[in-house]
């Protein structure tokens, strides 16, 4: 079996869905040297995103009418909401650091509280959401029922089929990192998505 780091796999899933991604996004404490939390992957997807105009790629994660921001957590266990994400000061730092909303916004505290309590917030032209990836989907509390959850099996299936349906477009990838190349190389070795999923071992 091929070991793949869960955070890097999540990065590639978001990237192949058209997100500009940031790995290991650090939220610093503004009153000292301590780190408040580390986000596995943060990303932003623009609403006009379209790859391959001749034969457009169909993404799984999209919001065609809004700029879509996510902070995403990867785990080898069941999907979950990180406890630091429920803290107002952490989410306020995330929003302002990413530029989702300015620190002078009159409703900043309301927006922050809504995200902490519900896992998402819909702006007129922007959408912000938590996102979870893990071995299994979880019965999250009702207030987080709009938070997207993806299993590693679903993610690997998407990646396999993206490579399968757009092999010519994705074949030239010398700029990809080692994980991206590994995902591609394993795709070339197996006959179907079942073997692709079976041959992958998710690690921390």
Jot down its keywords.
single chain; 204 residues; alpha/beta; six-stranded mixed beta sheet; two-stranded parallel ribbon; 7 helices; 8 strands
Task: Walk me through this protein's architecture.
The chain contains 7 helices and 8 strands. It has 204 residues and is α/β, with parallel strands linked by helices. The protein is globular and about 55 Å long. The mean pLDDT is 94.
Brief write-up:
The chain has 204 residues and is α/β, with parallel strands linked by helices. It is built from seven helices and eight strands; from the N terminus they run βαβββααβββααααβ.
Layout: helices, strands, pairs:
Elements: E1 2-5, H1 6-16, E2 20-28, E3 35-45, E4 67-74, H2 88-98, H3 108-118, E5 120-122, E6 126-134, E7 149-151, H4 152-165, H5 167-170, H6 178-189, H7 193-198, E8 200-203
Parallel strand pairs: 1-8, 4-6, 6-7
Antiparallel strand pairs: 2-3, 3-4, 5-6
3D shape: globular
What is the helix fraction of residues, given as a range?
Answer: 25-40%
Strand/helix succession: EHEEEHHEEEHHHHE
Q: How far is it from the N-terminal to the C-terminal residue, by CA?
A: 15 Å
Quickly count the helices.
Answer: 7
Q: Which segments are poorly predicted (pLDDT under 50) over 5 or more consecutive residues? A: none
What's the number of structural domains?
1
**Rg calculated over all Cα atoms:** 18 Å
Average pLDDT works out at 94
In what range is the share of β-strand residues?
25-35%
Number of strand elements: 8
* Category by helix and strand content: alpha/beta
Largest sheet: 6 strands, mixed
Give me the oligomer status.
single chain
